[in-house]
């Protein structure tokens, strides 16, 4: 990968890693619903002029129904679930669980689109979900004040991402990615409008909380989407996918440096097992055997 693309790759990982920090700071005062709603509203406001100037507004209008649905699955639901989870668990654990997104994507594609994985990818799914158990089991406390529901919220968010990926492949193949990115944020904004108004905090949040939701909307959503689709176009989806491996590194680093979050043994072990499974399940790595059935990620 050329140096310029490699720099964009690292910037994308750093931005998406920072999204967990910003969501935590926002949700602490805005609450989960308003944090998610403001995030997608800000991203929509930034992306819409870019879309119009690029001449892709007619594309969005032609595919509006499917794109707006993708917005609910790929932004509204997962952003709200992560904002809720971050009130109970660390940014590092949330980011590690977010790395299971390709696992759920491969699983949904297998069950829904009949995209059967080869032996190496199936083994990756098994290893990845074993890593989820290792990471989540110590936190499976569903009593009052426990973190079990937060862990399930993160996994629900990654499942929603997986569903969105298969929906995109089935209904939006060939649609310009900028139209999908912008339309999905508009769809998410519409979907979260009522919950955002209903659960708006009674006391006006402070400057830090406002700055966090603006930052997560502009930097970690709008700018990150543009970088993401640039990388897919110039480096290909397989190489771009490996950003999954760097996001937890940045998120854990931000949490340790800025929030004094502890880096625990289960986080390191569970995260390593999950990422190993992701590498196999996506076809980025192969098990050392004659596996002629293994396929690259759809």
Features:
about 300 residues, mainly alpha
Task: Indicate the topology.
Blueprint: H1 3-30, H2 32-54, H3 57-62, H4 64-85, H5 91-98, H6 101-112, H7 119-136, H8 148-171, H9 177-198, H10 207-235, H11 237-241, H12 243-258, H13 265-281
Helix pairs in contact: 1-2, 1-5, 1-10, 1-12, 2-4, 2-9, 2-10, 4-8, 4-9, 5-12, 5-13, 6-8, 7-13, 9-10
What does this structure look like?
The protein has helices at about 5-30, 30-55, 55-60, 65-85, 90-100, 100-110, 120-135, 150-170, 175-200, 205-235, 235-240, 245-260, 265-280. By secondary structure, the chain is mostly helical.
Tally of helical runs: 13
From the N-terminal CA to the C-terminal CA, the straight-line distance is: 21 Å
Major beta-sheet overview: none
Question: If you compute it from the alpha carbons, what radius of gyration comes out, rounded to the nearest whole angstrom?
Answer: 18 Å
User: How many extended strands?
Assistant: 0
Low-confidence stretches: 290-298
Nearest-integer average pLDDT: 86
Task: Quickly describe the structure.
About 75% of the residues lie in helices and about 0% in strands. It is an all-alpha fold.
């Amino acid at each position: 990968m050329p140096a310029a693309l490699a720099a964009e790759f690292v910037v994308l990982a750093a931005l998406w890693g920072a999204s967990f920090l910003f969501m935590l700071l926002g949700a602490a005062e805005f609450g989960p619903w308003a944090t998610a709603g403001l995030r997608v509203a800000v991203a929509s406001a930034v992306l819409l002029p870019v879309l119009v100037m690029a001449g892709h507004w007619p594309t969005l209008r032609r595919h509006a129904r499917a794109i707006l649905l993708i917005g609910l699955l790929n932004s509204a639901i997962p952003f709200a679930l992560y904002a809720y989870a971050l009130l109970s668990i660390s940014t590092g654990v949330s980011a590690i669980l977010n790395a299971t997104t390709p696992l759920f994507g491969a699983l949904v594609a297998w069950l829904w689109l009949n995209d059967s994985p080869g032996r190496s990818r199936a083994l990756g799914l098994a290893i990845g979900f074993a890593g989820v158990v290792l990471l989540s089991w110590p936190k499976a406390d569903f009593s009052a004040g426990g973190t079990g529901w937060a862990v399930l919220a993160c996994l629900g968010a990654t499942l929603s991402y997986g569903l969105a990926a298969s929906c995109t492949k089935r209904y939006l193949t060939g649609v310009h990615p900028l139209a999908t990115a912008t339309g999905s944020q508009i769809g998410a904004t519409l979907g979260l409008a009522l919950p955002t108004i209903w659960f708006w905090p009674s006391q006006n949040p402070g400057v830090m909380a406002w700055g966090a939701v603006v930052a997560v909307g502009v930097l970690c959503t709008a700018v990150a989407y543009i970088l993401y689709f640039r990388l897919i176009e110039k480096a290909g989806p397989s190489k771009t996918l490996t950003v999954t491996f760097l996001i937890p590194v940045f998120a854990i680093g931000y949490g340790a440096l800025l929030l004094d979050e502890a880096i625990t043994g289960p986080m390191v072990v569970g995260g390593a097992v999950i990422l190993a499974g992701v590498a196999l399940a996506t076809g980025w790595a192969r098990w050392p055997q004659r596996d002629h059935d293994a396929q690259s990620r759809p």
